[in-house]
Amino acid sequence: MVPKFSATTPIYYVTAKPHLGHAYTTIVTDAVCRWHRLCGDDVHLLTGTDEHGLKVQQYADAAGKTPREFVDEIAPLYADAWRQLDVKYDDFIRTTEDRHKRGVLKLLQACYDAGDIEVDVYRGHYCVACEAYYVEDELVDGNCPIHKTKAAYVEEENYFFRLSRFEQRLLDWYDKHPDAISPNFRRNEVIGFIKGGLNDFSVSRKTLKWGIPLPWDNQHVTYVWFDALSNYITAHGYGTDDQQFAERWPVDWHFIGKDIIRFHCVYWPAMLMSAGIEPPKGWAVGGFLMVGGEKMSKTTGNVVSPLELIDEFGVDGFRYYLLADTVYGNDGDFSYEGLVARYNSDLANNLGNLAARVATVVEKKCGGRGPAPRPDSPLAQVAADVVRDADAAWRGAQPSRALEATWNLIRATNAHLEQHEPWKMEPGTAVDAVMGDALEALRIVVILANPALPTTSQEIWRRIGLAGRIDECRVGVDTQWGLYPGGSVVEKGEPLFPRKKA
Ligand code: MSP
User: Ligand 1 centroid to 12 CA: how many Å?
Assistant: First the structure.
């Protein structure tokens, strides 16, 4: 049986256009999925948009549009952005779709029937930007701790999900699944939060119109987070296609930012448990990309548009920077200077230079045809170690480490060329031996780099005379040393990563 691998991104609020922070989470998810495809897995990547709730309704009002008109305008911008950034998703769910609504109704009813949803009165604060409830002592000077804006006092009849009943069940579940949250320090945070005692949370609003009415009381619409989290199962057939759901759930990873960890790692598994559904297998929690020391967001105004950067650095240059520059799980610092520096050092100088050098020497010293590698090349062991390390890192949702390993092979190959200086040799077996090894290392490098650089890796593959598509290669089979066929025509071509001025 072909192994299955399935991952999700958060579904993004349609109140902001796609920015670098959204692109970051989505590209990490895409690259990890691409690695699993290279391993031959049957992969599914789900993304989408979060379209209900007070925030969307307020933005629509401000734009003089109906919520429906408003969301229909913004949602396609996300799908377009992901296409332009070479994100290969399998499904894009919008919470305003009928299949989603049907699944949400089923989940609500299941939790209600289990006795875990009850009516009560909510008295407390609400931050519309977070779409989240806060108790008094979570506020900072009466303001939302994240957005630093006033959190409104609310007192209204709500239905509550009895989260407080799930403390022990959640702790037991995490005990049995010690690796479910990555990185590990986030797991400790979640466990600490649960042990601190869980409050019930509202699952409905009475004053809101833009949402899904509760199946047993249409005076209320579903709270946007209950609605949004459900996308992960409704997209996989919950409420519409039982067989599909049985085949696809639970997913392997929810990729999320650290800002939404409580919703995902506490509320969500409890909601699923209430309905008798297995929690997901794992959560890969990323940090924030900061700009000038602040989290990038529409509210802070420091928004960087991904689509402008790809004009300058190419899709692959931009993807590479996001994947390589920040250890997934930690906060990262975005700066234009940092992007230029990493592009120049890793892509223009290391990879680009290796590809150009190899092609030049093969043209001058090997008659333009790439020689075969030696089975006992000193680079063979380096390559085997790198393949092993890259595989472990991709599987652990650590793109920067996977790319660091891959670049070790690039560096070793450049060092191999510098050591032997084939450009100073006369044509013959000695040159062929050095260049065959370099070509073989480059062939393996571009397979390994393919999840980050889908287009340029394929172009290098073609230039070194290889047929077919990298995404049809298999890690473990095609990454074995010695498969570069001697005699292929090698082409130089224009620089793939022209140097940028610092
Ligand atoms: N709609 C909710 C998520 C519902 S998922 C069931 C939401 N949307 S959001 O558009 O505001 O943000 C979603 C995610 O975008 C964040 O959790 C995070 O993964 C990512 N990021 C948004 N800004 C970011 C940065 N500045 N840096 C890194 N990621 C950030 O919350």
Answer: 6
As given in the structure block, the two tokens for residue 340 are 């230029």
Q: What is the mean pLDDT of the chain?
A: 95
Report the CATH number of the 344-489 domain: 1.10.730.10
416 is catalytic: no
Architecture of domain 4-308: 3-Layer(aba) Sandwich (3.40)
Task: Tell how far the Cα of 15 is from the centroid of ligand 1, in angstroms.
Answer: 12
Query: Which residue is closest in CA terms to ligand 1's atom 24?
Result: 21
Residue 200 host element (H or E): none
**Which residue is associated with the tokens 């209320």?**
220
Atom 18 of ligand 1 has which residue's CA nearest to it? 257
Q: Is the CB of 104 inside a 6 Å radius of any atom of ligand 1?
A: no
For this structure, is 125 an active site residue? no
- The CA distance from 263 to 248, in Å, is 22
Take residue 124 and report the two structure tokens written for it.
């407390």
Q: Please indicate whether residue 366 is annotated as part of the active site.
A: no
Residue 276 in tokens: 């008798």
- Amino acid, single-letter form, for residue 103: G
Ligand 1: atom nearest CA of 296 is 26
Q: Scanning the structure block, which residue is given the tokens 């598509």? A: 469
CB 314 within 8 A of CB 306: no
Sheet (strand 217-222) strand order? 204-205, 217-222, 213-214
Per-residue pLDDT reduced to its tens digit, 387-438:
999 999 999 999 999 999 999 999 999 999 999 999 999 999 999 999 999 9
Strands 42-50 and 91-94: parallel
Q: For residue 26, report the distance from its CA to the centre of ligand 1, in Å.
A: 10
Pairing of strands 283-286, 181-182: parallel
CA distance 464 to 312: 26
For residue 256, the ligand 1 atom closest to its alpha carbon is 19
Report the distance separating Cα 107 and Cα 238, nearest Å.
8
Query: For ligand 1, is residue 29 a contact (CB within 6 Å)?
Result: no
Q: What are the sequence ranges of the domains in the chain?
A: 4-308, 344-489
Cβ of residue 357 lying under 6 Å from some atom of ligand 1:
no
Q: Enter the pTM of the model.
A: 0.96
Distance, CA of 437 to CA of 439 (rounded, Å): 5
DSSP string, 408-448: HHHHHHHHHHHHH-GGGSPSSHHHHHHHHHHHHHHHHHHHH
Question: What is the residue whose two structure tokens read 């590809």?
Answer: 355
4-308 and 344-489: identical CATH topology:
no
